[in-house]
Design brief:
By secondary structure, this protein is an alpha/beta fold. The chain folds into two domains: 120 residues, Rossmann fold (3-Layer(aba) Sandwich); 114 residues, Orthogonal Bundle (Arc Repressor Mutant, subunit A), CATH 1.10.10. Helices cover 37% and strands 19% of the residues. The chain contains eight helices and twelve strands. The chain has a five-stranded parallel sheet, sandwiched between helices. Strands 6-7-8-9 form a four-stranded antiparallel sheet, covered by helices on one side. Helix 4 links the parallel strand 4 and strand 5. It starts with 7 loop residues before the first strand and ends in a 28-residue tail after the last strand.
C-alpha cells in the first residue's frame, strides 16, 4: 500500500458520504485533509494556498469544478496539482477538465488506491519542479513564478493548456519538442485518442504569433514543434513556407 505521510490535501466534494470515505482513507495513510462542500468555499480555501494537491468534484453547488479550476489557474496564479472527479466518462468532458487547468482526471466510481496512486504521482512531480524562473526567446517571456507571459510590451492571455505548452517549448528552445513529449506534458501517459494537440497548438499560435510580425512557433514536419526567433534553416521541413498550413497565418489549418 502506498503511503502519503504529511501530504496536505484539499478535497472539494458535495456528496458527504463519498467525502467522508475519501477523508477517512487518506487520513489513515497519514494525509492531512481540509474539506469544502461547495465551490465557493473550495475556491476560498484553495486560493489561500498551502496545499500539496487539490481533489475536486466537477458538479458542485455555487460554482462548478471547471470554473473553480479556471479561476485558480488564471486569476489566482495557483499551480497546485489538481485532480478532477466526475461521473462523466465522455472524451469532451475530460478535455474540458484539462482545458480548465486540471492535471489529472478520475471517473466515478473509482478505487481509493487508484486515487492515492494519482495523488502520489502528481505530488512527486510537483516536488521535483525547479524554483521559479524567467524563460525568454526573442521578445517572448514567461515567468514560471507569476505565470505572467509577455511579448514585447504586451501581456498575453493563455489557457492553462497553452501555458503548459509554451513553458515546455521555451524550456527546450530552440530545439524541437516531439508531439509525444508535448502530449505527455498536457495529459500524462493517457493522451486523448483524437488529435487534440493540433487544436491546442493552433490556439497557442493565435495568442503568441498571430498579432505579431515575427513567427516564433515552428512546425517540424513529422517530428514536433520548436520555438525560436531565428529563421528556420532552408534545408529543414518546418512547414513555414508559403502554401504550407503551418505557415498560413490566416487559415484554419494553421497548426
Amino acid at each position: 500500500m502506498l503511503t502519503i505521510d504529511n501530504i496536505r490535501v484539499l478535497l472539494v466534494e458535495d456528496h458527504r458520504d463519498l467525502a467522508e470515505t475519501i477523508i477517512d482513507f487518506l487520513e489513515s495513510l497519514g494525509c492531512t485533509v481540509d474539506y469544502a462542500a461547495d465551490g465557493m468555499t473550495g475556491l476560498h480555501l484553495a486560493s489561500r494556498g498551502g496545499f500539496d494537491i487539490i481533489v475536486l468534484d466537477v458538479m458542485l453547488p455555487g460554482i462548478d469544478g471547471l470554473a473553480l479550476c479556471r479561476q485558480l489557474r488564471e486569476h489566482h496564479g495557483e499551480s497546485t496539482p489538481l485532480i478532477m472527479m466526475t461521473a462523466r466518462d465522455e472524451l469532451n468532458d475530460k478535455l474540458a477538465g484539462f482545458e480548465s487547468g486540471a492535471d489529472d482526471y478520475v471517473v466515478k466510481p473509482f478505487d481509493l488506491p487508484e486515487l492515492v496512486a494519482r495523488i502520489v504521482s502528481l505530488v512527486r512531480r510537483a516536488q521535483g519542479r525547479v524554483a521559479p524562473k524567467r524563460l525568454v526567446a526573442a521578445d517572448l517571456s514567461l515567468d514560471t513564478g507569476s505565470r505572467l507571459v509577455t511579448r514585447g510590451a504586451q501581456s498575453l492571455s493563455l489557457t492553462p493548456a497553452g501555458y503548459t505548452l509554451l513553458r515546455v517549448l521555451l524550456e527546450h528552445s530552440p530545439n524541437v519538442v516531439t508531439r509525444e513529449d508535448l502530449e505527455r506534458a498536457l495529459w500524462g501517459e493517457e493522451p486523448p485518442a483524437s488529435d487534440t494537440l493540433r487544436t491546442q497548438i493552433y490556439k497557442l499560435r493565435k495568442a503568441v504569433d498571430r498579432p505579431f510580425d515575427q513567427q516564433l512557433i515552428h512546425t517540424v514536419q513529422g517530428s514536433g514543434y520548436r520555438l525560436s526567433g531565428e529563421a528556420a534553416p532552408a534545408s529543414s521541413s518546418l512547414g513555414n513556407s508559403p502554401g504550407d498550413p503551418a505557415g498560413d497565418l490566416s487559415g484554419d489549418d494553421w497548426l
